[in-house]
Write a structure and sequence with these properties.
- By secondary structure, the chain is an alpha+beta fold.
- It has helices at residues 41-49, 73-81, 129-139, 153-163, 167-178, 232-244, 283-288, and strands at 27-31, 36-38, 55-56, 69-72, 91-96, 113-117, 125-127, 142-146, 149-150, 182-186, 194-198, 208-215, 248-255, 272-278.
- Keywords: Endonuclease, Hydrolase, Lyase, Nuclease, tRNA processing.
């Protein structure tokens, strides 16, 4: 079976970046009970540009730090509702008309406006629990604080597992593909758990939509840990959606050891992962082969 080549984005030029493991000083972040937040401007740029970790809270993905921010009209109207008289972070923004696409027609007769933004909102980089744990304990470039206390590896594992019941399985798959060189991002937009990019979102379209299926050692489904139906009809429907979006569906079977009730970070090596690539069979393709 031949694998499809990742689709390169138009006018994109790949830029090599220095690995995060070579940082002289660890980046500080804090756990807000849901995700991990980085507020330092240099830290945000470093974490995102050297591996595309996290997502900005105001920008579409990459944190944009500049004097005159460009936002859509709907974003500006939303910020007007959050205006505060005591806000000290008053800044000018450039407001452009709403549009779901940025094709050539959008820029015809475009009339941006200067407006004053008095909302207390400021750009932050939000890391998922698996991203933060990977950066802190595998890359070792991130410090995570909770209420002014630096979290240890065991503290993070416990807190993140309590916050998200799927943390262990999510992290196992995340680490698996990151170590293979893929850039791993959330896949909820395409009905999956993750999507995989070659090099990063600025350079290539996502190649695979990943769904996680936790199974016993005999490959029977572990019912108490399932997050979706794996019925044939559902898989066919999800696969057709992936085809429409120009991606392929990848099922990752996480083989859960029967002797382990609680899995720690050190036990991840005992978990095996099967990758199953899903493709729609047609008679024409079979005859051509």
């Amino acid at each position: 079976m031949e694998l499809q080549e990742p689709r390169k984005k138009k006018n994109s030029k790949f830029k090599k970046y220095i690995p995060l493991c070579n940082l002289e000083k660890k980046i500080s972040s804090y756990f807000n009970g849901f995700s991990i937040i980085i507020e330092n401007i240099d830290g945000m740029k470093t974490i995102y540009e050297r591996g595309f970790f996290g997502k900005a809270n105001l920008s579409r993905s990459c944190p944009i730090i500049r004097q005159n921010e460009i936002i859509r009209k709907r974003q500006y109207l939303r910020r007007c509702k959050w205006e505060s008289k005591d806000c000290k972070n008053i800044k000018k923004v450039i407001v452009v008309p709403d549009s779901d696409t940025d094709d050539d027609n959008y820029f015809v007769n475009l009339k941006p406006e200067y407006q004053i933004d008095r909302s207390p909102m400021k750009e932050k980089l939000c890391l998922s629990l698996v991203e933060a744990y990977y950066l802190s304990n595998y890359i070792k470039c991130l410090n995570v604080y909770c209420e002014d206390t630096l979290l240890s590896q065991s503290d993070m594992w416990q807190k993140f597992s309590e916050t998200d019941t799927c943390f262990v399985s999510n992290y196992a798959i995340y680490k698996h593909f990151r170590r293979k060189g893929w850039v791993v991002k959330p896949g909820i937009k395409f009905g999956g758990d993750y999507i995989l990019y070659k090099a990063g979102p600025p350079y290539y379209h996502a190649s695979y939509v990943v769904i996680i299926d936790i199974v016993n050692e005999d490959l029977s489904r572990k019912k108490e840990m399932q997050r979706r139906s794996m019925d044939t009809v559902n898989i066919i429907g999800l696969n057709r959606l992936c085809e429409t979006a120009g991606k392929e569906l990848l099922i990752c079977q996480l083989i859960w050891p029967s002797e382990l009730i609680y899995i720690s970070d050190q036990d991840l090596s005992k978990i095996s992962i099967n990758e199953i690539l899903v493709r729609r069979w047609t008679e024409t393709q079979d005859n051509q082969g």
